[in-house]
Amino acid sequence: MVTYVSAETAPLRNTGSIRLYGPEGFAGMHRAGRLVAECLDALVDIVRPGLATQAIDDFVRDFANDHGALPATLNYRGYTKYTCTSINHVVCHGIPNEKPLREGDIVNIDVTLIVDGWHGDASRMYGVGPVKRAAERLVDVTYESLLRGIGAVRPGNTTGDIGAAIQTYVEGERCSVVQDFCGHGLGQLFHDAPNILHYGRPGTGVELRPGMIFTIEPMVNLGRPHVKVLSDGWTAVTRDRSLSAQFEHSVGVTDTGCEIFTLSPKGLDKPPIIAA
Ligand code: MF3
Ligand code: CO
Ligand code: CO
């Protein structure tokens, strides 16, 4: 049985109940989400061949410090970086390191910043110089799948409607949806109820109600959906080493549909392929 609680009176931990936020919560999420979007916007001018993903992490560290934000991933379950940087066949949770990006890579950069206690969580794909057509198509399909998922967010729909919208579209494009990771409730917590699966059947799961806040963050593979986690305990890769892509927005359910907290002020939600 699913229960819904007012975020104002609920304890600040994941109890499994679904928290419903009011106008202050939405205002806080807009501030946090916008800052994440601005950080991801700024990275469009930073990402290039030869750059180490550690330099991306350093940039996000400085950006967070300069804007009075805290990085949610630092020290999260032992994670020691400000971002996740997931290249090519890395599905998610790639750990920034000193290896340089190469022309033709596609890289997901995932940033979660805490502003006045509110968590903004978003990620985008960046093309490093010209990329192969197959890679570009995967990025396009993944972004479109996120939009389709967001399009299913309205009161009375269910989490299963979101997953079904994503899965139906992705599989129709002969790609596959990763099932081992999901979107999540967030707000004053980083990972909260409910789980947002990126696959499923219409009408199943949890009913969406105004005031709910969560992420949608589909991971889409060119090949099979199966993943494995490397011995570092974080890096998830496709088992068949096929390319993988991901986009993420933080959204809130309104009376009529949804608001996206992490929209790019510059319209760079899907960045252009960066010239080498
Ligand atoms: N930002 C990721 C998400 O979308 C979570 C990263 S947790 C980390 O939920 F520890 F790997 F950074
Ligand atoms: Co997330
Ligand atoms: Co994220």
Tell me what the structure shows.
The chain has 276 residues and is of the alpha+beta class. It has a single domain, classed as Creatinase/methionine aminopeptidase superfamily (Creatine Amidinohydrolase), CATH 3.90.230. It is built from four helices and 17 strands. The protein is globular, with a radius of gyration of 17 Å. Bound molecules: 2-amino-4-trifluoromethylsulfanyl-butyric acid and cobalt (II) ion (2 copies). Substrate binds at residues 93, 191.
Low-confidence stretches: none
Q: How far apart are the termini?
A: 52 Å
Query: Major sheet: size, sense and barrel closure?
Result: 4 strands, antiparallel
Q: Looking at CATH, which topology would you report?
A: Creatine Amidinohydrolase
> What's the pLDDT, averaged over the residues?
97
The Cα radius of gyration reads 17 Å
Please count the helical segments: 4
Binding site for a divalent metal cation 1: 110, 121, 248
Binding site for substrate: 93, 191
Keywords: Aminopeptidase, Hydrolase, Metal-binding, Protease
Domain Peptidase M24: 28-255
Strand and helix map with partners:
Blueprint: E1 4-6, E2 18-20, H1 23-43, H2 53-66, E3 70-71, E4 83-87, E5 90-92, E6 106-115, E7 118-127, H3 133-151, H4 159-172, E8 176-177, E9 183-185, E10 192-196, E11 213-216, E12 219-221, E13 227-229, E14 236-238, E15 244-246, E16 249-253, E17 258-260
Parallel strand pairs: 1-2
Antiparallel strand pairs: 3-6, 4-6, 5-14, 6-7, 8-12, 9-10, 11-16, 12-15, 13-14, 16-17
Q: Can you tag this structure with a few keywords?
A:
single chain; alpha+beta; Creatine Amidinohydrolase; 4-stranded antiparallel beta sheet; 3-stranded antiparallel beta sheet; 4 helices; 25% helix; binds 2-amino-4-trifluoromethylsulfanyl-butyric acid; metal-binding; Methionine aminopeptidase; Creatinase/aminopeptidase-like; Pept_M24_MAP; aminopeptidase
